[in-house]
Amino acid sequence: MCKKFAEIMTNKFQMSMMGEMNFFLGLQVKQTKEEILINHSKYAKELINKFSIQHMTSVKIPMNTNWKVDPGTEGKSVSSTKYKEIIGSLLYLTASRPDIAFAVGVCARYQSDPKEPHMDAAKRILRYLKGTPDIGLWYPADENFKLSGYSVSDFAGCKIDRKSTSGTCQFLGDKLISWFSKKQTSVATSKTEAEHVATGSCCSQILWLVQQFKDYMIEEREVPIYCDNSSAIAISQNPVHHTRCKHVEVRHHFIRDHVKKKDEQL
């Protein structure tokens, strides 16, 4: 079928077959019968040279856990053009590097008036890449197609507007297929609410994936979503917990409906 499709396309349009994909828009793809490896190794190394990070030592994590920076941070202003160039390059890299998604997202909030501490934080991500240029996505050729999701959230982590940040990822067996780190649209008034909103976002993505899998004759029911907040789980399973969820907006309660329908299982 693949060969027939290639013949139809080449006869209909002016194009040529390049063979098996191994490089596309900076993305390196290595395919074997046992696995597929995807990374931005070459692109990451080019960024290290482009922004002159070669002489700096590498670090083990992309962001300092004690980083206390806000828009009013004291320090000398730096070139916003260069700062935006670094952030833009790193955002493209998150297509294969979920491990830097949160750190890049935080640094991207200060592009209007970056100071030296903001630039140091952005360069720290590049220093992290220097020590881990070959990390990427790994897809083994097995038959484990059990869908699962994970959700987590900080609480009022953004210093600009005190909104929380949701983080979710979805696995097909042990293969990571979807993820995002995104600031929530509303201000959460408790850790439980922030976690509940994040779980709702994960639920939305799971439902979309379940719909896509139907095209491949894969049926998924009671997809497990893992959340580390017992109150958020209790709210989704029992609507009686009024004292814990009175302040949570109604639009975030749709996940409870899907738990009841057995689309999800928290």
What this model shows, in words?
The chain is an alpha+beta fold and 266 residues long. It has 2 domains: 38-136, no CATH class; 142-265, Nucleotidyltransferase, domain 5, CATH 3.30.420. It is built from 9 helices and 9 strands. The protein has helices spanning 2-12, 41-50, 80-93, 101-107, 116-131, 191-213, 230-237, 242-245, 254-260, and strands at residues 23-24, 27-31, 35-39, 136-140, 147-153, 165-172, 175-183, 223-227, 264-265. The protein has a 5-stranded mixed β-sheet with strand order 7-6-5-8-9. A hairpin with a 2-residue loop joins strand 6 (165-172) and strand 7. Helix 3 (80-93) runs parallel beside helix 5 (116-131) and helix 6 packs across helix 7.
SSE map:
Blueprint: H1 2-12, E1 23-24, E2 27-31, E3 35-39, H2 41-50, H3 80-93, H4 101-107, H5 116-131, E4 136-140, E5 147-153, E6 165-172, E7 175-183, H6 191-213, E8 223-227, H7 230-237, H8 242-245, H9 254-260, E9 264-265
Parallel strand pairs: 5-8, 8-9
Antiparallel strand pairs: 1-2, 2-3, 3-4, 5-6, 6-7
Helix pairs in contact: 2-5, 3-5, 6-7
CATH architecture of the largest domain: 2-Layer Sandwich
Low-confidence stretches: none
Helices and strands, in order, run as: HEEEHHHHEEEEHEHHHE
The multimeric state of the shown protein is single chain
